[in-house]
Amino acid sequence: MRPSxxxxxxxxxxxxxTERARAPVPPAPPxxxxxxxxxxxxxxxxxxxxxxxxxxCACPACGRKFLVTFAPDKETGTSILCPVYLDDSVTTxxxxxAELPAPAPPAAAAQGRLDDVIDPPPPxxxxxxxxxxxxxxxxxxxxxxxxxxxxxxxxxxxxxVFEPAEKRHVVHPxxxxxxxxxxxxxxxxx
Length: 190
What we know:
The chain has 190 residues and is mainly beta. The protein contains two helices and 13 strands. It has helices at 3-21, 106-110; strands at residues 35-39, 45-49, 55-58, 65-72, 79-85, 95-97, 125-129, 135-139, 146-148, 155-163, 168-175, 185-186, 188-189. The chain has a four-stranded mixed sheet with strand order 5-4-3-6, with no helix packed on it. A four-stranded mixed sheet has the order 11-10-9-12, with no helix packed on it. It is elongated and about 110 Å long.
């Protein structure tokens, strides 16, 4: 076989191999819609996608209606969910019920990949200082309620707040000066 013919055959084989390698790639599927999680006013966690943009949705737990809007964040370049709650006078047949999120796997929760808006439940009791300096114990049934110190008699409202920096719940006692009511409980010493 002649060397020129052999070179031509090698070039043809190389060209065919290149054409096969450059075969058209099937189009990529469209990216899934971005999922955003938000907490409703009632505390129910909801899952909304970018497909809900500029649509009316309702919370499946409390039934409150809100308009889903997304605003671009200039710093990160992502879109931020901005719900606008509607009053009961706005009624249309185009209200979608928001989806409840699936429970997160324990591994995801342990690695801290859950949204920071979702606070863990408070412990059954939290120690806190009374304005008189006495250390008191707030039980779960006294959270966000009026209590009285057993020593000095000071009435206060116990506000329980989750501190993300410390990763724990803290009681903020607010001293009350209004008239006493029958709903005031006496707290116990720690």
